Every structure is written in structure tokens, then in C-alpha cells.
């Protein structure tokens, strides 16, 4: 068995996530409280009682990271397993870097809080939009985006799995692309409730500002290979991290490619760590032969324990 960890991205959050871990695991509670101290806000209160703040990007990102890091360490400690390779969806890539040793928990919390603020402020509310497109191939979607950009810029943003690609850009361009994609035979287009057109060139200003912050970080050597959304390949070396994480904000997320790279490296068992099980559903569509289990609470932790005992 070769295990890969994949870490949740923004959008997976929900009110009450992590509550039973917080109440029953001293380790989990300490990590969440540590994040509260770093940011100067009550993270647990936001997680369990304040849905409006939970959905603000500047809070969402560090909260999901804190929860994911805590669960990862519980999984490794209690189940005596460790990943051979790691990846994450967008924000989740920062959790993967903590897992690899390239970033400390403290550095990552501060970084993603800043990243969230920059992404939130990059495009005025209502100017941009994102839509999930079902049932069409990459080439058809890329062609429609190119044609629709004659109205206003729209771009492929997330290559999640076969048959699901997210596009994003200016609202007018996205609406034109939706029209063209319906004509091309898409099964469905689903407008997403997001605060901006993430992973598109509209986030260039945010990327440039984030680069200034990243250049001040002392990244360490990665002890575990990290597969990046930017290329779908393993990040080659520590020195590439500033450029990779800068590009990541405004470049498409090649999550499907990341998973295929992990499978090619020998991974046969994926553990999704963090709120929700969106990534598990993606992986099932990418390769049905994989063993997949998410861990977001004590129930799913026990389920993973039982599953590993059988295998």
C-alpha cells in the first residue's frame, strides 16, 4: 500500500466542521487555538458559530489549513501511517507544504491569511464570475473561452476531473462562454458562489502582491514530494516555491493531472484530509481503482482505521 494525502481547498468549509475533534482531541484543540493566537481572532467561534465570517476568504483559508494540519497529525500519530507524496486543491497546496516540512504551521497560517485577503480584494464584488462546466473536454472548453473572451476575458480555471472543468473571468465573458458551451452540448453549467474569479489572469495584481510576501519566507527542503496544481508535476526544488505559489493564484488548477502524477508514482490509496469529501469524488472519477477515504471528524477517522486494518 502506497499512501498519498490530499488536502481540502476553499469551498469545502461548513459551519460546525471539526467540532467533535475540538471537543475530544486536546491536540486538535491546541492547533486551532494556536491559529487563533497567530491571527488574533477566535477561530473556534468562527468555525462553530459564525458562517458569515467562515465564508470570508481571509478567514476561510487559515481555518481550513489549521483544521487540515491538525487532522493530518492525528491520522499519522493514531494510525501509524505516513504519506509517500502529497498534494492539495489550491489552498490545500499550502497544507501539503506544511506536511512536507517546507513551511512551519505558523508561517503557513500567516501566509494564507494574507493570500486570502489579497484574493478577496483583487476583483470588485460582482465584476467576476466562475462556472462549473459538466460533460465537455478541455479543448472544447478552451475554445469557447477564447471565443467568449472577444466579449470580455474568460479562462479555464480548474481542471478537477474528467467531465468537470471550472471557468472564470469577467461576468460578461463567463455568460457568453456559458451560451457557447450550451451550444457545444454541455450537460450542465453551474454558476459558483465565490467572491472572485480565482485562478485566472484577473488575479494578477494579487499574485504580484503575494510574491513580495513569499520572497520574505524561508522555505525549507521538502522531506516529502509535493505535487503542484500549477503544472500537475512534483515541485522540483525549494527554490521554485516562490515562483510556483505566485503563479498558483492566477493559473489554472490542474488537479486531475496532480492525481494522475501521484498514481504514476505508485500511490494506490488516497486519504483526503480536511472538511468535506469533494476531492474523494474527483479521484473516483479520475481512477475508479484507487482506495479512497476522507477524514474530517472522529467518525471518518475510525472508518479509515477500520479500512486500514482490513487491508
From TrEMBL:
This is Malonyl CoA-acyl carrier protein transacylase. Its EC number is 2.3.1.39. InterPro entries: Ac_transferase_dom_sf, Acyl_transferase_dom, Acyl_Trfase/lysoPLipase, Mal-CoA-ACP_Trans/PKS_FabD, Malonyl_CoA-ACP_transAc, Malonyl_CoA-ACP_transAc_FabD, Malonyl_transacylase_ACP-bd. It is an enzyme of class 2 (transferase). The keyword Acyltransferase applies. NCBIfam families: fabD. Belongs to the fabD family. Gene3D superfamilies: Malonyl-CoA ACP transacylase, ACP-binding (3.30.70.250), Malonyl-Coenzyme A Acyl Carrier Protein, domain 2 (3.40.366.10). PANTHER family: MALONYL-COA-ACYL CARRIER PROTEIN TRANSACYLASE, MITOCHONDRIAL. Residues 6-304 form the Malonyl-CoA:ACP transacylase (MAT) domain. It comes from the Bacteria. One of its GO terms (biological process) is fatty acid biosynthetic process. GO terms for cellular component: cytosol. Transmembrane segments: none annotated.
Amino acid at each position: 500500500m502506497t499512501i498519498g494525502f490530499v488536502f481540502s481547498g476553499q469551498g469545502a468549509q461548513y459551519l460546525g466542521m471539526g467540532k467533535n475533534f475540538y471537543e475530544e482531541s486536546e491536540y486538535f484543540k491546541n492547533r486551532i487555538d494556536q491559529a487563533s493566537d497567530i491571527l488574533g481572532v477566535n477561530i473556534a467561534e468562527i468555525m462553530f458559530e459564525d458562517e458569515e465570517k467562515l465564508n470570508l476568504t481571509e478567514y476561510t483559508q487559515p481555518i481550513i489549513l489549521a483544521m487540515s494540519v491538525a487532522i493530518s497529525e492525528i491520522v499519522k500519530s493514531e494510525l501509524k501511517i505516513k504519506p509517500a507524496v502529497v498534494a492539495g486543491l489550491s489552498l490545500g497546496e499550502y497544507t501539503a507544504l506544511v506536511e512536507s516540512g517546507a513551511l512551519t504551521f505558523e508561517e503557513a497560517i500567516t501566509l494564507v491569511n494574507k493570500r486570502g485577503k489579497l484574493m478577496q480584494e483583487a476583483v470588485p464584488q460582482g465584476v467576476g464570475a466562475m462556472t462549473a462546466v459538466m460533460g465537455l473536454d478541455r479543448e472544447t472548453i478552451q475554445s469557447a473561452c477564447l471565443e467568449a473572451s472577444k466579449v470580455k476575458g474568460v479562462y479555464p480555471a480548474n481542471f478537477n476531473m474528467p467531465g468537470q472543468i471550472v471557468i472564470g473571468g469577467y461576468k460578461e465573458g463567463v455568460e457568453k462562454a456559458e451560451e457557447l458551451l450550451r451550444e457545444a452540448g454541455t450537460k450542465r453549467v453551474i454558476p459558483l458562489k465565490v467572491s472572485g474569479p480565482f485562478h485566472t489572469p484577473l488575479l494578477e495584481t494579487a499574485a504580484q502582491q503575494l510574491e513580495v510576501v513569499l520572497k520574505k519566507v524561508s522555505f525549507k527542503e521538502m522531506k516529502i514530494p509535493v505535487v503542484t496544481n500549477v503544472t500537475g508535476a512534483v515541485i522540483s526544488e525549494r527554490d521554485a516555491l516562490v515562483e510556483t505559489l505566485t503563479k498558483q493564484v492566477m493559473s489554472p488548477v490542474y488537479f486531475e493531472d496532480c492525481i494522475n502524477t501521484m498514481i504514476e508514482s505508485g500511490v494506490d490509496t488516497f486519504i483526503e484530509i480536511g472538511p468535506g469529501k469533494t476531492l474523494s469524488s474527483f479521484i473516483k472519477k479520475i481512477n475508479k481503482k484507487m482506495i479512497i477515504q476522507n477524514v474530517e471528524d472522529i467518525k471518518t477517522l475510525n472508518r479509515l482505521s477500520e479500512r486500514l486494518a482490513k487491508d
